[in-house]
Prior knowledge:
Blueprint: E1 3-7, H1 13-25, E2 29-31, E3 41-49, H2 55-62, E4 69-77, H3 84-95, E5 99-100, H4 120-135
Parallel strand pairs: 1-2, 1-3, 3-4, 4-5
Helix pairs in contact: 1-4, 2-3
Amino acid sequence: MNVKVYYVSPKGCAETIAEAIARECRCPKEALMPAYPPENVVMMFIGCEGSKADKVTIEFLNSLNTNRVRSAALFSCNVKKDNVAIEQMREILESKGIRVLAGSIAFPCKGIFGGRRPNEEDIEDARRYARECLGNI
Length: 137
């Protein structure tokens, strides 16, 4: 199965979570810059940092279609209760006809703004998240 893990991570949190997901999926993680648009991807994990999706992530998602990606699972590293970034990504992908897995609306990462990096519990949660998502496709 063709699985990709993409992320934007200026503070390193989303990269740590992407690494845990990629290891569970047995595929490499790839930063969105300078990622090439994927082709024939069955499952794409994509994550970003902050309460809103960044410009790079939005541009990448807008370049996709159902020939490039069939299903997506979303995560963000954000301590806020609202999750605008996830909803922004979901809206773009669904408008393109790309299936966004139910239950994959968020992966909150504790302490991003407090200076803490993802801890072992966060990493295990990311692994579990990846297993659950793969089991749903």
